[in-house]
Amino acid sequence: MKKSKFLINGMRKHSLPWLMLAPFLILIVIFFFLPIILIAVNAFTDMDSALQWTFNGIDNFKKMLLDPNMPEILKNTFIYVFFTLAINVLFGLVLGLLTSYFIQKESVGLLFRTIWMLPRISPPVVYVLLWLWFFDPSPYGILNSLRALVDLPPGEWLSSNPKTAIVLANGMIGASFGMIIFSSAIKSIPENLFQAAKVDGASQWSIIQDIIIPAIRWPLMFVTMWQLLSLLTSYEYILLLTGGGPMVESEVLSLYSYHKAFESFEYGYGSAVSLVLVVIALGFSAIIWKVFGMKKMMGTSRVE
Amino acid sequence: MKKSVLSLVSFLTVAAAALTGCQKQSEADAQPADNGVVTISAWSEGAEVTRLTNLEKASEKLNEELKSQGKDIQVKVEPKSFDGGWDQYAKQFMLSAKAGKAPDIYITPHETIGWLADGNYIMPLDELRDSKEYADVFPKLWDAASYNGHIWGALQDNEARPVFYNKNILKDLGWNETEIEELPEKVRRGEFTLDDMTKLAEEVVKQGKAKYGVIHRPVNGADFHYFNYLFGGQLYSEEDNKIVLDKSAVGKQLAYHYELAQKKLLPDKLISMEWKNVHRMVVNGETLFYYGGIWNVFNWGNDNFHDQLGKVDAKWVNENFGMMLVPAAEKGGEPITLSHPFLYTVNAKTKHPDLTKRLLELVADPKLQTEHNLQTFHLPVTERAAEDPEFKTDLTLGNIAYMSEYTTFLPNHEGFTKYSNVFWNSLQAVELGKQTPDQALESMEAQLKVDLGEDLKIVE
Q1: Which residue among A272, B108, B309, B419 is least enclosed by CB atoms within 10 Å?
Q2: Is this complex scored with an ipTM above 0.90?
């Protein structure tokens, strides 16, 4: 009795914040929770082109275990996420250092950062089109014209090295995200630390290693985690660049779910694949949370 | 974050919302039409707009008919044409059907009637078969419109998939005019076989008369499956209503593609090329044979594929290319082709079933068929339309009309899309040399067992 009175009082006290939060909570429920619940339910049906909710137990998951494509797709997913993530984070870091530490003039740094942001603001189809021209198998493709200059025969890049192509295309566009976060983090390092290091005769390398990297530890982890999760579930650049082919050589789990649901109209099976992806993403989140000690990052600010 | 999940789910949400919402809507709409005007909506996909304009013309006739019967109704056709992929088009229809907004007439390739019928999207149209307008349909074509013992669509058109051969290359090889012109007939009689075709292609490439011996479509499609029939296989078992994996025929099929690739008769990595480059290679005489479709004549006239001439007309095509059936697998055997008729299907929930059906009878008018056929290089579905003088004198179509006698179809079972996707992967594997035909067949079997499950029948 006492407890419920307390609750009501609490609710009255907090009614304004709740009211303010309500629109966002509703959006989150509709666009984040409901989808996952629908996916979870649908994963146990054999919904096909007839769009009927016919429950079939764990058949979809059994099917996934037997699916001969699965091992290769999982391997591709791992390779794709690992290497793209490496480019995203490391190259993003290099860009961040270049445009905010080595180039001290803000206007020049900003110009370079803006150039690197261009792919982000152009539609994916346009961005991928540029890569398609770059890899074009005809002698007129950009890469092949460059090879022609040194008398090398034209290559069939997208069919001979599809994984390299998708990693490069995704890595380049993803690096700009890290770049922005890292540059602002580097900018916020107190200037006197650099001055002191220089007075002590520290090399550039040791400034990076001993001052910058430790100072941007949290942004580094945040970018790694964020990019890992988005790479696991993004597929649009692969779909546009190689379509997962040739065969399933560049097919990743998220694209497989798309293909099953929207090309073969196996909505149930596609949902099951998506559900597995959700579980994998949750698993990774938990691991990173623990290993990186993210709780500390989310905690109260420790700056100064 | 989870984009794939999101897109799948937003789709499901819409579908679920639509499922609950559609009931009220259709009741509300079942009011008598305004001012006696009944609107019949129709969807089509692709460049062949005559599929829709013919419906509009047929509606004029229907209106005259209604007037003479003293009925106070006028029919208006509301056409909508889609661009983009066929799977997008199908998806649009699924969703709008669940939302109660599907068109009355859905124009679709015949092999989709399996899922359309199984999902109760369309209504059976068995009575069309007895109507006088469809009385003289080429009997074999009804197979393409049948599924589970019913007719599900009004036949709209038909086509042929001939093998194009380059006359100039043969001339270069020393063939005389008569030999070149007689080739289609020799194929028809089973004297010139698939092996002969491969040998000829080899000779041409070896002597440097052409860069390539054979070119086929660069993307997945219906063409590949005529080889299955050619090697005595089957794709569908009607009695079990199952997709068939005919291991011996598919093995031969894969071996054929493997041979073409190993002998370097195909362009390297043909399967990753773009359509426009394939058209360019064919039109510019880089290949002796091309497994094409009759509508390619329409394509070549619409785009600048020829390096010097740009767009080429039907006359040019006929002067430079011959068209033949796919040669028989062995001497004296039957040559083959495959066609892919289009159907007018009728929404199961249409409010005007009788008017729509009458409209579909009127659209089979031979004149209207001919208009579509001549403009888009398709073949008629009825004998009267085949006898149309304008059609008969058409340079291209007149020469290949006989191919309908040798035609086959894809199965209408909904599982065929899955089969065709799996087959396409195996075909890529053998052409890229990543698997031998035996290995490719093995992985195909394993994948089909998973993808089709109960719907698969394996024939050794």
Answers
A1: B309
A2: no
